[in-house]
Amino acid sequence: MTQPLLDASSLRFVGETPGEVRVRLSTELDRLEAHLRGRAHDWSTAQPGREWSPAQEAEHVMKIDDSIVPLLRLLLSDKPLRPMPQIPGELKDGKRQAPPMTLPGEDGLPFEALDTTWAEHRTRLEEMAARVEPTPGRTFWHQFLGELDALDWLRMVVAHIRAHRKLLEQSAA
Q1: Which domain holds residue 49?
Q2: Which of 79, 89, 106, 157 could form a disulfide bond with 144, CB atoms 3.0-4.6 angstroms apart?
Q3: What's the rounded Cα separation, in Å, for the pair 7 and 106?
Q4: pTM of model > 0.70
Q5: Segment 3-27, tens digit of pLDDT
Q6: CATH code at 105?
């Protein structure tokens, strides 16, 4: 089942300006990381009402973010953009489904990797975010939000991190 596109303006709660969005990104990364560090006791256990463990949630967030960094680089460049298929996202039991390439592995991120892999991921993401500005006329298709420019893609990343943090917090409650 597909879902009608949401309005990209729904991402504005993250911040209006690039600076506001960058601050919110750092804040959400701090909050998610702090939460993840407190989940060592159930790191590999699927969460109530969820299919994934905290380890898998962390790996999924990293895969999404890491797939968007090159996209941001492209949108901020003057390289030509190729037309891409505009395929709406899938829903399963009312939940948006992640693209297959962003699904976590069976074990997810090893807990010990928070000090290395997660930190490297965060550095790459924040370094790219430091360059992001609006790119009117240079957009790329998002399966649930439609055409997004670079700033809206960064807003989407922040909203995605926030959503997974909140899901993890709810599962821990």
Answers
A1: 8-172
A2: 89
A3: 33
A4: yes
A5: 456 778 889 999 999 999 999 999 9
A6: 1.20.120.450
91 C-beta neighbours (distance < 10 Å), count: 13
Concatenating the DSSP letter of every residue in the chain gives -B-PPPPGGGGGGG-SSHHHHHHHHHHHHHHHHHHHHTTGGGTTSPPTT-S--HHHHHHHHHHHHHHHHHHHHHHHS-SPPPP---PPPBEETTEEPPPGGGPPPSS-S-GGGGGTHHHHHHHHHHHHHTT----TT--EEETTTEEE-HHHHHHHHHHHHHHHHHHHHHHH-
Q: Considering only residues 164 and 49, tell me which one the structure prediction assigns the higher pLDDT.
A: 164
What does the block give as tokens for 76? 């901020």
Q: How many Å apart are CA 41 and CA 37, to the nearest integer?
A: 10
Does residue 129 lie within any of the structural domains? yes
Please name the residues in contact with 80: beta carbons below 8 A apart, sequence gap of 6 or more: none
Exposure class string for 37-57: b at 16+ Cβ within 10 A, else e: eebeeebeeebeeeebbbbbb
